[in-house]
Amino acid sequence: EAGDLAVLAARAAGDDLLAPPVRLDTVVPAPERVEADPGATFVLTGDTAIRVSAHPGAREVADHLAALLRPATGFPLPVADTLEAGPTGTLTLTLAATPAGPVPAPPADLGAEGYRLDVTATEVRVVADTATGLFYGVQTLRQLLPAAVESPTPVTTRWALPGGTILDRPRFPYRGAMLDVARHFFAVEDVLRVIDHLARYKLNHLHLHLTDDQGWRIAVDSWPKLADVGGASEVGGGPGGHYTKADYRRIVSHAAARHVTLVPEIDLPGHTNAALVAYPQLAPDKLAPPPYTGTEVGFSYVDPADEQTYDFIADVLGEVAALTPGPWLHIGGDEAFKVKGAVYTDFVERAQRIVADTGKAVVGWHQLAPAAHLDGRVLQWWGTDADDPTTADAVRRGARLILSPGNHAYLDMKYAEDTPIGHDWAGLIDVRRAYDWDPGTHVAGVPTTAVLGVEAPLWTESVTSLTDIEFMLFPRLPAIAELGWSPRAAHDWAGFRERLAGHGPRWSTAGITFHRAPEIPWP
Ligand code: TNX
After folding, report:
1. What positions belong to coiled-coil segments (predicted)?
2. In the chain, which segments carry CATH 3.20.20.80?
3. Which of 104, 232, 280, 404 is the most buried (most CB within 10 A)?
4. Radius of gyration of the chain (CA)
């Protein structure tokens, strides 16, 4: 029989046409509700078609789905803007808000990012109120196919999806990661790949730490030497680099297509040596310091007593705001050890008003807490002692928090003593430590309602390549993603380590470097 021969040929090639489908309950981050229907299996074939609501955002998601599935399956997977079923199997993406067509009623409260996924023997259907919800349904669908779906080249296997229904939506609206492109500079392509990694795990914000002592990484037309001079250095003496405005726009649009919002950070008033190298008039002593290639912190600052400093801030934040479609501007504020007391809070209050003048909302490290509250202000908490009355007080005055506890969420911390790169000032962070905490109750006196979400920062003093980035992200980034997305009731270390284990082969197939953490039962 031709079918038997295909099975034999596939076995010989190491493929398995008889493998059972992935289990419906192995998705990371864990969905809100999963109801398996073990009797039903959908099998993707060369005749499968993709159908989508006639809506530009939904169409973009359908094209994204086709682009994800075509390389490994080798199937044509035509996409059509109609909800009518195809001749054989159909993958249907339905925007519930779209008027025409046979629209299955979604539950009333999928919200801005939720989706419903139904897999039957004849159809895979994703329904959502928004294109973002459809996008997340597609990321789930991808995880329900065999790991071979991550292959960049065609594989012969049985492209089975497990039957059942998933109803899903996030716990927190802000789920992010930070990449420090200042300590070491990373090419646009590397940043785009990091965005792809975020999207897989339903993270929706990328915070770019664009400026620090060792380098200034974004072109600013009104102060051109920031990038040209201040960008030409990095930790260890390498050449550094910077993003042109066109580069930055490429990052913005790649992110937007993956429903990721960019959060640019211009770190002020400290962490500014690179800016002072370029423009000594911003320095307190008006002397150009040498470029800095070490890893100390807290020594540099822009002159808070000079009006030129505020012109510089307004120009820079104005240009960065104009390039950034998202609602946030991050102004740093950490470790400005030489700007103290009222001088610091006055500086921050002026910087916050400059942000507000650009139409964006202020995000800053939690050192901003003592400054006056401004509408919409968000503090990013990176402490290690959850008893932080100053932050709790800022929350009482109206601030919301992004949780990045140094001893749980810092991706630059070593996994173990023998991890070849990374720091240990906040302790060692193995996968369990990254996973076992609750953003909703972590900081004393801060209610869950004040928590906007979570972010996992990657500082790059010792991270010099995309391989290093991936090694520090995987497998901890999915742990943080689950804290941001999944309902607290789903939190379960024993279950998480089993589910995560199945992702190892996906990463290997996709060419993603990861740490084979000993506490995960990798297959
Ligand atoms: C502290 S966390 C910093 C960074 C360093 C990091 C290294 C924070 C807001 N500031 O400047 O890169 O430690 O882990």
Report:
1. none
2. 174-510
3. 404
4. 24
Ligand 1 atom with least separation from CA of 459? 12
Give me 49's structure tokens.
Answer: 């078609």
Q: Rounded to the nearest whole angstrom, what is the distance from the C-alpha of residue 253 to the centroid of ligand 1?
A: 28
With a 6 Å cutoff on the Cβ, whether 350 touches ligand 1 is no
Specify whether the CB–CB gap between 314 and 287 falls below 8 A: no
**40-86 per-position pLDDT tens digit:** 999 999 999 999 999 999 999 999 999 999 999 999 999 999 887 66
**Which H or E run includes 50?**
strand 49-52
CA distance 481 to 500: 12
Give CA angle at 339 (337, 341), nearest 5°: 105
State the distance from the centre of ligand 1 to the C-alpha of 446, rounded, in angstroms.
23
Q: What is the DSSP letter of 31?
A: P
Cα→Cα distances 470→9, 191, 329, Å: 34, 11, 26
pLDDT of residue 322: 98
Structure confidence by residue, pLDDT tens digits, 373-429? 999 999 999 999 999 999 999 999 999 999 999 999 999 999 999 999 999 999 999
Q: How far apart are CA 460 and CA 238, in angstroms?
A: 13
CA atoms of 381 and 157, how far apart (whole Å) = 46
Residue with tokens 């007391």: 341
Q: What is the pTM of this model?
A: 0.95
For the chain, the maximum distance between any two Cα atoms, rounded to a whole number of angstroms, is 84
d(CA 308, CA 310): 5
The answer, yes or no, to whether any atom of ligand 1 lies below 6 A from the CB of 423, is yes
Q: For domain 2-168, is the CATH number 3.40.350.10?
A: no
* 35 assigned to active site: no
* Residue nearest (by alpha carbon) to ligand 1 atom 6: 459
List the structure tokens of 296. Answer: 């100390």
Cα 425 to middle of ligand 1, angstroms: 10
174-510: CATH architecture: Alpha-Beta Barrel (3.20)
Contact status, residue 313 vs residue 253, Cβ threshold 8 Å: no
Choice from 214, 335, 424 to test ligand 1 binding pocket (greatest atom count within 8 A of CB)? 335
